[in-house]
Design brief:
With 469 residues, this protein is α+β, with helices and mostly antiparallel strands. The protein has 4 helices and 24 strands. Strands 3, 18, 19, 20, 21 and 23 form a 6-stranded antiparallel β-sheet that branches. A 6-stranded antiparallel barrel has the order 4-13-16-15-14-17. α3 runs antiparallel to α4. It starts with a helix and ends in a 7-residue tail after the last strand. 21% of the residues are buried.
C-alpha cells in the first residue's frame, strides 16, 4: 500500500471513532436531578416509585363504647277484647223486644232483649202449688207429733200409777204373810179356830195374785210407753221429711224463677255490642254454638289485650312485667305504654312462637278489637362486660339479631395501623352491634372498613376533622 492510501485509511478510522463516541455521549444519563428524563425512562421510574410508596387509605376512627345494648324486640300485635260474651237464649220462646243494636255501649245489667215463654209461667204456678201442698203436709205431721208426744207423756204417767199399785199390792202381801204366820202359830197352839187360819190363808193367796197382777200391769205400762215413744219418733221423722219436702218444693220454685229470669237478656259487663243476631218475633231456643248462633256478642273495651307472637329466640327474655310500647297505624300519634301481663309458656310448633299478652288501658275506646299494632318490647340490657360499636364498623355481621356463635371482623386502630380483629357479636339493633369478646372499651376502630385493602395489618391515615366554619 502507498503512503497516501495509508494516510486516507487512518483518517477514516478516526472519523468513525468520533461518530460512535458522539452517539454514546447522546445516550448517557444526565447527572443533573432537575434534568427531565425521556418519556419511557420517566414512566419506568414512576412505577417503581408507586410500589415503594403506595397510596395510604384515609379512615375515620371511632371509640368503642362500654356496656351491652338495650334488647329491643319489634313485633306485630293483634288487639283482642279482655272479655267477650256470646249471649245465647236459655229458654224457648218468642223474642218480644230487642233494645240494642251493634255499636251500642251497654252497662252491666242493662236489658238487651226479652223472651216471651208462657210455659215457664205455668211451671212457676205448678211449683208454687207444690210448695203449698208440702207446707200442708208439714202442718199435719207436726200435729201428729203433738198427739204422739201427749200419748207418750200419758203412758209415762200410767207407768207411775201401775208402779204405785204394784207397791201397794206387795205391801199388802207382806202384811198378810206375817198375819198368816201368827195365826198359824196360834192355831197350832189351839188358841184360835182353824177356820180363821183358813180365812187368813185365802186372803194371803189373793194378795199374792194381786201382787203378781200389779207387776204384770207395770210391765205392760212400760211396754206401752215404749210404743208411744216409737210413735213419737215416727211422727218427728215425718215432720223432718215434710220439712225437706217443703224445701225441695221451694227450690223448685226458685229454679223456675231462675228460668223466668233468663227470659230477660242482660249485659254481663260494661262494653259494646259488636254483633246482633236476632230480631223481634224470632223463635229462639237454648243451644250451644259460637258467635254465629248467639243473640248478641258483647265485648269489654275499657281494657284491651294486645297479643304478640314472640320468636323462640326471645322467649327466655319475655316475662310478665317486661315494658312494652304499642303504636297503631290507624291511630296516628297514639303511643301506648304497658307491660307484659302474661305469657303462654309453651311454644307453638307450627311457627315456633310463644303467645304473650299485654293489657292496655282504653278509656276512650279508640283501640278496637281486631286492630293491628306495632309492639316494641324492652327486654333489658346486655351483659355489663360487653362493648358496643356501630354496625357499619363490623364486617360479616350475622343476619340474626342474636347469634351467640357468630364471628365477625373489625379493624382496630393502633399506631397508624388498622389490624384485622375477629370479634364475637351477640346482638345488634340495626345501629349498634354488641360485642362479647375481641374488643375492650379502650380500643378504637375503623368506622367504615368496607373497601380497605385485604390484610391483617394495613397502614392507614386518620381523617382530620373539618375546620370550623
Amino acid at each position: 500500500m502507498t503512503p497516501i492510501k495509508i494516510k486516507i485509511a487512518a483518517l477514516l478510522v478516526v472519523a468513525g471513532m468520533l461518530t460512535v463516541g458522539g452517539v454514546f455521549a447522546a445516550t448517557r444519563p444526565s447527572d443533573d436531578p432537575a434534568q427531565p428524563l425521556p418519556n419511557a425512562k420517566a414512566e419506568k421510574t414512576k412505577t417503581r416509585g408507586d410500589e415503594k410508596n403506595p397510596v395510604v387509605p384515609v379512615v375515620q376512627i371511632v371509640r368503642v363504647q362500654a356496656g351491652g345494648l338495650e334488647r329491643i324486640a319489634n313485633q306485630v300485635g293483634t288487639v283482642e277484647s279482655t272479655q267477650q260474651a256470646q249471649l245465647h237464649p236459655a229458654v224457648t220462646g218468642v223474642l218480644q223486644k230487642v233494645d240494642v243494636n251493634i255499636g251500642d255501649r251497654v252497662k252491666r245489667g242493662q236489658l238487651l232483649a226479652e223472651i216471651d215463654a208462657p210455659s215457664v209461667a205455668l211451671d212457676e204456678r205448678h211449683a208454687t202449688i207444690g210448695v203449698e201442698q208440702a207446707q200442708g203436709l208439714l202442718k199435719e205431721a207436726e200435729a201428729c207429733v203433738v198427739t204422739a208426744r201427749a200419748e207418750s207423756e200419758a203412758s209415762k204417767g200410767a207407768v207411775t200409777q201401775r208402779d204405785a199399785e204394784a207397791s201397794a199390792a206387795k205391801a199388802t202381801l207382806t202384811h198378810l204373810k206375817k198375819k198368816f204366820e201368827r195365826v198359824k202359830e196360834l192355831a197350832n197352839q189351839a188358841s184360835v179356830d182353824q177356820r180363821l187360819l183358813g180365812e187368813v190363808e185365802a186372803q194371803l193367796h189373793a194378795a199374792e195374785a194381786l201382787s203378781d197382777a200389779a207387776v204384770a200391769t207395770v210391765q205392760n205400762a212400760k211396754a206401752d210407753t215404749e210404743v208411744k215413744k216409737g210413735k213419737l219418733l215416727q211422727a218427728e221423722a215425718t215432720v223432718a221429711n215434710a220439712k225437706s219436702n217443703v224445701e225441695a218444693a221451694k227450690l223448685g220454685v226458685e229454679k223456675v224463677r231462675l228460668v223466668i229470669a233468663k227470659t230477660k237478656i242482660h249485659a254481663p259487663f260494661d262494653g259494646v255490642v259488636t254483633r246482633r243476631g236476632c230480631s223481634p218475633g224470632d223463635y229462639v231456643y237454648p243451644g250451644e254454638g259460637g258467635g254465629e248462633g248467639s243473640l248478641f256478642t258483647v265485648m269489654r273495651t275499657d281494657v284491651v289485650r294486645v297479643v304478640v307472637a314472640i320468636p323462640e329466640r326471645d322467649i327466655s327474655l319475655v316475662l310478665p312485667g317486661v315494658a312494652a310500647e304499642v303504636m297503631f297505624d290507624s291511630l296516628v300519634g297514639m303511643r301506648v305504654s304497658g307491660k307484659v301481663a302474661r305469657v303462654g309458656y309453651s311454644v307453638n310448633p307450627a311457627n315456633r312462637t310463644m303467645r304473650a299478652e299485654i293489657d292496655v288501658p282504653n278509656p276512650k275506646g279508640d283501640i278496637r278489637p281486631g286492630m293491628f299494632g306495632s309492639v316494641t318490647l324492652k327486654l333489658g340490657k346486655g351483659p355489663a362486660d360487653a362493648v358496643r360499636v356501630p354496625v357499619g364498623a363490623v364486617l360479616g355481621l350475622p343476619p340474626s339479631s342474636i347469634d351467640e356463635k357468630a364471628n365477625a371482623v373489625v379493624y382496630v386502630y393502633r399506631d397508624g395501623k388498622a389490624r384485622r380483629t375477629r370479634v364475637r357479636v351477640s346482638y345488634n339493633d340495626g345501629k349498634e352491634a354488641e360485642i362479647l369478646s375481641g374488643l375492650t372499651a379502650e380500643d378504637r376502630i375503623v368506622a367504615t372498613p368496607m373497601g380497605l385493602p385485604f390484610g391483617d395489618e394495613i397502614t392507614v391515615e386518620v381523617e382530620k376533622p373539618a375546620a370550623p366554619k
